[in-house]
Structure formats: structure tokens, C-alpha cells
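To: structure desk
From: M.T.
Subject: fold request, one chain
Message: Could you run this one when you get a chance? Sequence is below, nothing fancy, just the single chain.
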Amino acid sequence: MDTIMRLTKEKVDAITVQEWKNICDHAVKEEKAFDGRDAAIDGLSERFIINTGSDDSSDESEDEDAMSGEEEL
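Reply: Done. C-alpha cells follow.
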């Protein structure tokens, strides 16, 4: 375990300031891109319905009644 910690520390210490800056800039860019998609993902996930595979036909007719007027994704 000491060897792993020592090698990890050596590698982290070898990262230059410019490399850290590039990594941080990339992380910020990706986070902003995700934030832009977050609302769309939330909207879709709220309408996402999981089919449990129930074979009960009465469940299917109830589902159809509940979905009347709904548009399939």
C-alpha cells in the first residue's frame, strides 16, 4: 500500500500548473453543458413510464384509459 501511495503522490506532484488549469477548465465547460441539458432531462424523466411486464389484461386497459390524451414518446 505504501508503494501505491508513493507512486500516486509522485504522479500528482508531477502535474504542472498548466495541466491542472486545462483539467479544471474542461470540467467547468462540461458542467455548464450538463446544466443546459439538465432541464430537458428532468422534463423527459418526469414523463418516463416503466413497463413492469405485467400480464394482467385489466392493468393494460386501465393504463390505456389513464394514458388517453397522452402522446407516446
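Reply (cont.): The chain has a mean pLDDT of 80. Let me know if you need anything else for the meeting.
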